[in-house]
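1st attempt posting a full record on here, be nice pls
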Amino acid sequence: MESARPRTVREHPAAGWFAVATVCLGAFMGQLDASIVTLTFPAVQHEFGAPLAGVQWVSLAYLLTLVGLVVTAGRVADAIGRKFVYMQGFVVFTLASAACALAPGLGWLIGFRVVQAVGAAMLQANSVALVVTSVPPQRMRAALGIQAGAQALGLALGPALGGALVESAGWRWVFGVNIPVGILALIAGRYLLPRTRQRAALRQFDWRGLLLLIGGTTGTLLVVSAISGLRIPAWALWALAAVSLLCIAGSVRWARRAAEPLIDPALLRPPAVSVGLVGAFAAYLVLFGPLALFPQLHGADVTGSGVVLTALPVGFAVAAIAGARILPREWDTRFRERLGAAAAVLALAGLVISPSTAWWAFTCLGVLGLGLGFFIPSNNTGIMSAIPPGRSGTSGGLVNMSRGLGTAGGVAVVTLALHLGGHTGNSSAAPRIALAGLLAFAVLAAATTVVHSRRGSEGSSDNEEQSMTASAIEPSPAWTGRPDESALAEVIACLRRAMRRAARAADPANTLSVAQLELLSCVSEHPGIRPGQLARLLHLAPNSVTTLVNGLQSQGMITRAPGDDKRAVTLTLTAAGQDAVQSWQATNTDILRTALSGLHPGWQHLLSAAMPALDELTRAIDTLADPPLQTTSSSEK
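the predicted structure (as C-alpha cells):
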C-alpha cells in the first residue's frame, strides 16, 4: 500500500509543485552521480592498484544495468504503484551508495555499483511518470522542464563538486554525498508524492522479453564502449554485435506474440511515441557529446575546459525552467520544439567553424544548451501525452532508456571521431570531425519535429501561465443528467457494424459466423458447460444452441461427452476450436489497437480519462451476461 499525503499537502494549491520538487531531488542526484564518478578513476586506480581498463567498469557496469532495467522498472511500477517503486528505489540507491563508499576492493565496488544502478532504474523509470501524473495536462511541459533543469544542475555541479571532494575528502565521499540527499528525498517523498491512481494490471511478467531486452541493450552498449576505447578482441566485438542484433530482433518478434509483452508494440505505434523516442536519443547524444569532447581538446587545461563547458548545462537549465517566460506566449509547443532543434543545429554548425576559440565555443555551447532546453522537455511532453496514464511508468522508462543510449552514443561518436581525426595529422581536424558527427544527430533531432505532428492538447502558453490551483487527480464534477438514448443506440450500432466489417476484412478465410464464434468463446471460458447453461449465458433459444453445437461438432471444433440426452451432456473444445477462438480474439485485439492508435491524440487522451468508467461498465456487463453457473437442473436431467 502506498502512503497517502497529509490532507494539508493534498489540498494545497501547489500540491503538484511539491511532488515535482521531490522528483527533482532524484533527478539532481542521478545526474550528479553520473557526472561525478569518472573523476574518481585516478584515485581508485591508485588505491586498488588496478588498470584503467578495470576501473572503467565502475561506470560501465552501472550504465549497462541501468539501461537494461529501466523499462522493466517502469512496467512493474505501472502495476504495483509508482510512488512505492520510486521510494524503494531511493532506499536501494542510498544503501548502495553507502556500500560503495565502504567498498574494500574494486570487485566489491563494481558489484555495489550494479546494485546502485538497480535503484537508479527504479528512480528514473518513475520520475517522468510522477511529474506527469502530479500536474494538470496544461502544465506538463513546464513541470518536465523543471525536472530537466534539475538534471542539468546536477550535471553542471558534478565536475566542480567531484573535483573538490576527491582533492579534499577522498574518492569515497563522492558516493557518500548521496546518503544525505537520499534521506531527504525519502522523507519528502513520503509526505509530498501522490499515490498511484491509474494502474495497468500485470498478470504475468514477461521474463523472456526482459532477457532479450537486457541482451540487446547490453550488447549494444558494449559495442559502443568498444568503439569508445574499451579493449575488446575483434572476434568478441563482432560476436557482441551479432548477439545484440539477434536479441533486438527476437525482442521485436516476441513482443508481437506475447500475451503481456514488456514493451507493448501498441505503445510505440503512435508517431508521437516512436519518432519522439528517436528525437530523445538524438538530443541526449548531442547534449552529452560536448561534455566528452572539450576536456579532450589539445591544449585545453582542466579549468579552461570546465569554464567553457559550464555554458552548456547553464543554458539548458535556463531554457528548461524558464522557457515558458522567455518565449512569446503565442508560440505553441510544437513551434518551440522546432525552434530549439534549429538553435542546436546552428550552434553546432558554429562550433564546427571554430571549436578552439574559447569565447566562441562558450557562446555556441550556451546557444546549444538553450536549444536543447527548449527541445527536450517539449519532446518528452509529446511522448508522455500520447501514452495512457496507466502506462506512464513504462513510457518514462523508454524515455530514460533513450537517454542512456544517447549518453553512450555521445561518448562513442566523440571518441571515434577523435580516433579518426588523429590519423589525419591535423590537430584541428579531430574536433571538427567530432562536432560534425554531433551536428548530424542534431539534424536528425530536428527532422523528428517535421515528420509527425505533436498533440495540441498540451495547451498554449497562456494556459501554462495559469496558477496551478487544482491537483491533477481532482475528480470531475458528477454529471446528473441521463445520456441521450438515441445517441447511445447510434453509437452501439456503428461500433457493431464496424467491428463485423473489420473482422471479416482482417480474416477473410474465417467461415464461422459471429454466433458460432461467441459460442466457442463461451465454451472456452467454461469447459464442461452444458447446452442449457449456454442458452442462458448467450440469451439464445435451446434449439438454436443445439443447431450451433451440431454445426461446430461436424467441423471438428467441439466435442460432446458420451450420453443419450444431447441437451444434458458437457461440451469442450477441440484443438481446432481453441485455435479458432484465439485467432478471433487476436484479430479483434489487433483491430482495436490499430483503430485506437490511429485516433487523434486528443481523443486518445479523452479515452484514457474515461478508463475508470469503462472498467465499471465492463464489470456491469459481465454481471448481466455471465451470472454464476447453477448446478444441473431437473429439466436438463
